[in-house]
Amino acid sequence: MGVWRSLVLLSFCQCCLQWAAAASKVPQVYQQWETAEEFPQPKWRIGAESPGGVDPSPQMTLNVPFDGAPIGAEIAVDYLEAPAVEGTESLLAEGPKDGDKAKGAKLPGKGAIMSLSMLLFLCAGLLAIAKKKGAAAPAAPTEEEITSKPPDMSDEEYMKMRLERVQKIFHTAEKMATLVGSPEASGVVLNIQKALENAKKEEDPSTVEEHLKLANGEIGELHQLLREYIEALDNTYSRTPPLPVLALKEGDKDVPIMQVINDIRRTSCVRGAVYVLNSLREKSEREWKFFRKLAKHITKIPNYQDENDEQKLEHVITGVEYLKSMGISKAHDLGLGEKMKEIAVEGLHEMICRDRMEDVLHFENDLDLLKISVTAMQRRHPPPGIEPEEYTHACSVLESRLGDLQGVVDDMYAHLVDMQQSRSLQVAFTSSGKLEVTLEMAKDELRAVRKDAASVDMGFDAVGKRGKELIPDKVFQAPNTVSSEQRTIRERLRKLRREIEKYQRDRARNPDDQSNRLNDSIPANILSSIQGTETATEVILNNVTEKQGNILHMAGQQEVTQIVRDHYSQLVALRTAQFTTEMLDLDAKLFLVLEEELRRQIQEGEEAASFVFPEDSSSAKKLLRLKRHFDEEIRGVTRSRSLTDAGESLLKTRAILDNMNYLIREALMHP
How far does the signal peptide extend, from start to end residue (predicted)? Predict the structure, then answer.
């Protein structure tokens, strides 16, 4: 029984060893390697259309190697290269010998048990090793293994296999030629095609090999052309104008633009435009650094030699397509930046001019009131204790000083006209500073004149009974002035209303396409503000006309002062309506630009999300999480009910897009 038991167990052990050694050769394990020449390449599709009016490149496919090995290195999976247990090969190759059986029969019982225990222990260990090896993927072959002909393959079969591989690379070569876009590249593609066609016609393996060598040489030439194209892309990108800058100077000192904005009222659209512009500049600086880094990286990849360099070639194309997409993105950024700068400059320019205009109007109102009082003084008898000649001289001096101040006011108005016509933000800012200094000096002089007038006649501010004659001519001309400006404002508002209503009609024709649009409440609010501004200008004109009629029936001594004050308050209100009209026009422009940016970000998000990382990799999971977060924030943008909220939300989504692109760029630099 001991002998038979030993034989059975030994046979079982041998079978176990054979099974274990064969476990690593099961079809599903080797299936991946059998198709190693067709590594599934992850792809990132860039759409055929891009926002912003920039013609994109033809549809591109970005491929990134996912094997984790550096470009040009041998593909190897560490856990597949564990050494086999020593002696396993001899045990698998040789069966039990007769002599061994005989010796086994003569073993004493204790020795047999010891031997069997050792064999069982060895069997268990081999089973564990076989299980571990069977669970792993096969090691990728080295370049020499790919190049050398398998021993069980004929020369004809080997050349056919190589021809198929080069034929596959030919499609990659066509993509390269499309990227380069030169007649020379197209000619190289024709040469490759001709070499492959000749190879297909031949039966002699050596002749086929010559044609394949020729085809590979032409592909290498195309790779060199692509390298030159990368350098051209780099030069073009380097010459691309930088994003526009909003900069102001006060003398030799730089003035932070946000400081100017914070000092001005009602700057929502301008603030939003500046935020977006600053964000674009930061993005541009980051992308410029990466562009140079990636261009340098893929330029250093060794030139294509034969079909074993397929992955190198794919990686180069990946990089070139991404570089090209970055160039398209830069063009979009430039267009968007120019629009944002235009909105910011126009808005700030208008705000600066408006503030100085209001300041001058308020000063002129105070000046006219003081002039009326001094004129009334001249028409009264001198106060007790003051000689008539002395009183008359004092009034003349006051009148002369007020005349000088009127000259300052006229100069300030001329200065304001120059500011408005210049359309230069720096000119407006510098002129505004100078005008502010002049205005402060004029206010000091006006206070001094008032103080001197009070010292001459304590009742100087009491208007006489003949007050109507003291009203300035500009007050009587107010209805005509206001009516003309009101018509100008109304025409601009009507034009703006027509544009927005046309936009709303166009939007209504595509009710299903709401995911890439800003909230309907924003243009609706602009229309509401247009209506409110139109009503305000009509009220101003009616008030001025009504006041004009009241002048003819004035009775009280103080009504002159009130009429003048009302006159200037209506002028200030009219300037406010003009400013509001300008801001509404900028709001409408900003709305369209932000909606364009929304569509562009959605497209960029889809393109970034279509980049394929290795399945179940940490980068793939991160990209998925970022895309979900991006989609959620995009919905927040479409729900925003104001331009300020929409602009801030788009800054958040842009930051998420930057993170998505960071993952992609890491893959491009470290495949």
Answer: 1-23
**Measured CA distances, 665 to 238, 328, 400, 531, 670 (Å):** 19, 16, 74, 50, 8
Output the DSSP codes for 85-137. PTTHHHHHH----HHHHHHHHHS-HHHHHHHHHHHHHHHHHHHHHHHHHHHSP
Q: Dump pLDDT digits (tens) for 312-326.
A: 999 999 899 999 999
Residue 634: its pLDDT value, please? 96
Which of 71, 74, 73 lies closest to 297 in space, CA to CA?
71
Work out whether strand 43-46 and strand 60-63 pair parallel, antiparallel, or are unpaired: antiparallel
The pair of structure tokens assigned to 52 is: 């912003």
- For 462-473, b/e burial (b = at least 16 CB within 10 A) is ebeeebeebbbe
Give 331's contacts (C-beta < 8 A, 6+ positions apart).
Answer: 52, 54, 240
Which of 520, 528, 525 shows the shortest CA–CA distance to 503?
520
Q: What is the pLDDT of residue 84?
A: 36
Torsion of CA 362, 364, 369, 374, to 10 degrees: 150
Q: How far apart are CA 56 and CA 604, in angstroms?
A: 13
pLDDT digit string (tens) for 494-531?
999 999 999 999 888 877 667 789 999 999 999 999 99
Q: How far apart are CA 110 and CA 113, in angstroms?
A: 5
Q: Which residues contact 624 (CB under 8 A, 6 or more apart)?
A: 609
Q: Between residues 573 and 614, which one has the greater pLDDT?
A: 573
Other Cβ atoms within 10 Å of 515 Cβ, number: 12
Whether the per-residue pLDDT at 466 is higher than 80: the answer is no
Whether residue 626 contacts residue 656, with contact meaning beta carbons closer than 8 Å, is answered with yes
- Contact, 324 vs 60, CB < 8 A? yes
| Stated pTM of the model | 0.72
Tokens for 38, please give them. 């067709």
Run of H or E residues at 388: helix 388-422
Q: Is the pLDDT of residue 144 over 80?
A: no
Fill in the DSSP letter of residue 517: S
Exposure class string for 304-319: b at 16+ Cβ within 10 A, else e: bebbbbbbbbbbbbbb
What type of residue is 14? Answer: Q
Work out the end-to-end distance of the chain between its first and last CA atoms, rounded to an integer number of angstroms. Answer: 63
